[in-house]
Amino acid sequence: MTTVIVALGGSLLRPEIEERHTWLEGLVSIIRDRVSMDDRIGIVVGGGAPAREGIELARALISDESHLDKIGIAATRLNATIVREALSDSGIPVSGTIPKSIDEAVLLLEKRQVVVMGGTNPGHTTDAVAIRFAISSNAERCIIATNVPKVFDEDPKKNPTARSYDFLTHRQLLEIVGTSVHSKAGDSQVVDPIGAQEAHDCEMPLNILDGRKIELIKEAIIGGDFKGTKIGVSKS
Ligand code: UTP
């Protein structure tokens, strides 16, 4: 029995993602297969478009970043509800509620094979939630499904010659993502530095990949080779 936690970037549910219904069906099918193999899977869903829209609308009136974070958290829970309902309607044994804390999520994962959640508290993103969930549930690894193919040394959208990596140690990842502070609600990096720091401290392996390609999520959950960046103590 393997326990894996998957962070699904909220951008994966966006209307711009081609074939997003097929993508969601693919996700349901992967989870169904893994459940039949006795895996336990925690899914942490990001806020994507509703988080950004909500935060942008309220920013003119609200200056406390933690209050804006709450809007982001509400969006992550909306997206988590979409994923939870899709799994539940397919007969997958998913927890009936969306937990609000890591402790609650860990308890639920002991009772059900699949738990879906969004954010918890202000001050970080769902990557950090997924990494904490992985550490607290003694998961084998945490998969971060995002919208870039690999970790780059610079933002590839700003610098097309940025270098990408197949493998990094936790320390090298920290050098790329920078200090573990949550400066602004809605700000996004390839991996939340707060989560990256905790993964480093607890030596939690991370698999970072392009979640738009559903087969990569499947390969990473199974534990095989996948195109993306592995973060760990050693390459094996
Ligand atoms: P996300 O996890 O979606 O952040 O949370 P993101 O980096 O923008 O991720 P993608 O693009 O969906 O992959 C959205 C915002 O919600 C707040 C933060 O403000 C975050 O930027 N949030 C989320 C929290 O404050 N706490 C949480 O536990 C989760």
Describe the protein in words:
This protein has a single domain, classed as Acetylglutamate kinase-like (Carbamate kinase), CATH 3.40.1160.10. Helices cover about 45% and strands about 15% of the residues. It contains eight helices and nine strands. The strands form two sheets. The chain has a seven-stranded mixed beta sheet, with helices on both faces. It has a two-stranded antiparallel ribbon with strand order 5-6. Strand 1, helix 1 and strand 2 form a beta-alpha-beta unit. Helix 2 packs antiparallel against helix 3, helix 4 crosses helix 5 and helix 5 runs parallel beside helix 7. The chain is globular. About 45% of the residues are buried. The protein binds uridine 5'-triphosphate.
State the helix count.
8
Give every kind of bound small molecule, once each.
uridine 5'-triphosphate
Beta strand count: 9
| CATH class type | Alpha Beta
Q: Report the order of strands and helices.
A: EHEHHHEHEEEEHHEHE
| Domains (count) | 1
Structural class: alpha/beta
**Main β-sheet, spatial strand arrangement:** 3-2-1-4-8-9-7
Nutshell version of this structure?
With 236 residues, the chain is an alpha/beta fold. It has helices at residues 20-36, 48-59, 65-89, 102-111, 126-136, 170-177, 193-202, 214-222, and strands spanning 3-8, 40-45, 114-117, 141-146, 151-152, 164-165, 167-168, 206-210, 229-231. It has one domain: Carbamate kinase (3-Layer(aba) Sandwich).
